[in-house]
Amino acid sequence: MGKSGQIGRKKMTLLKETIHLEILEMIADHANKITSRDLEKMIIQRVSVGRRAFQTALKALIAEGELAYTYLYGCTFIEKSFNRPVRVGSRVILTPPERQPVLNGSDIAVVIRPGASFGCGQHPTTRLAIQGIEYALKTLRDGIPTTLLDIGTGSGVLAITALKLGIHLAMGTDMDPCAIAEAGENAQINGLSQRFTVLDVPAEEINAQFHLIAANLRYPTLARLCPYIASHIHENGAAILSGIREDEVQELKSIYAGLNLECRWEAMDNRWAGLVLSKRSLC
């Protein structure tokens, strides 16, 4: 191959990589679900490529497991694929049972079987809650028995993650029989059945102190639970809240501040927010 041919091949490779990166970034940054047709229009406009080049790149990303087609209300969307190991925190990799993730250093693998329950990593609120748990565990004292309450546990992903990151015992609450069954199954898959208990009762019926309380719920419920959460956090513990829209953050922080819980960590993902709060007297 001559020099001009090598240059041409390098240009084609660079263009292919550019299209791949633009597709992945656009899907990651897009606040709403996006159809393949809309994605095609935006990529062609942004990268100035033809339809054939876009379709070739999209097919490759789907074949590689980076993206997947999803169906909702009769429409087809393109979304990030979670049917493979996906890093969702600095140490946490979520993976389906049939995949074996590559772990580096202090990485931990959390195995979640895809099911009907919400919370397998697809949604930004799940990722934010996991990142909040990672942050909160750094503030706990070493050498003490640590406990977590996961309100609205769903698939159990938050409690299982916390246990694998060092929490000793976890309790989850959920009123959905499907969620209770799936959380129990996921605990068993991860070898944590003896350390994770799921109850079908409202959180307010549990009268105990916890080092961490996690709640990936919507704003009205998080606001209602504020007095309970504030009174059931251990003195050196923290609350991890997610499921909060960007425009709800300040008001929710004010509600919790009124009960002496101050925000120590805040992160955003596609217009969703995650918070970690602890008692002011700790700092």
**Rough outline:** globular
The termini sit apart by: 66 Å
Nearest-integer average pLDDT: 87
Secondary-structure content class = alpha/beta
Instruction: From the 3D structure, determine the CATH topology of the largest domain.
Output: Rossmann fold
Strand order of the largest sheet: 9-8-7-10-11-13-12
Number of helices: 9
Helix-strand blueprint:
Layout: H1 3-29, E1 34-35, H2 36-47, H3 51-63, E2 67-72, E3 75-80, E4 86-87, E5 92-95, E6 108-111, H4 124-137, E7 147-151, H5 157-164, E8 169-173, H6 177-189, E9 196-199, E10 210-216, H7 219-224, H8 226-231, E11 233-245, H9 249-257, E12 261-269, E13 272-279
Question: Could you characterize what this model shows?
Answer:
With 283 residues, the chain is α/β, with parallel strands linked by helices. The chain has 2 domains: 3-79, Arc Repressor Mutant, subunit A (Orthogonal Bundle); 119-282, Rossmann fold (3-Layer(aba) Sandwich). Helices cover 38% and strands 27% of the residues. It has 9 helices and 13 strands. It has helices at 3-29, 36-47, 51-63, 124-137, 157-164, 177-189, 219-224, 226-231, 249-257, and strands spanning 34-35, 67-72, 75-80, 86-87, 92-95, 108-111, 147-151, 169-173, 196-199, 210-216, 233-245, 261-269, 272-279. The strands form 3 sheets. The chain has a 7-stranded mixed sheet with strand order 9-8-7-10-11-13-12, with helices on both faces. It has a 3-stranded antiparallel sheet with strand order 1-3-2. The chain has a 3-stranded mixed sheet with strand order 4-5-6, with helices on one face. Helix 1 crosses helix 2 (36-47) and helix 4 packs parallel to helix 5 (157-164). The longest helix is centred in the N-terminal third of the chain and has 27 residues, at 3-29. It is globular, with a radius of gyration of 21 Å. It starts with a helix and ends with a strand.
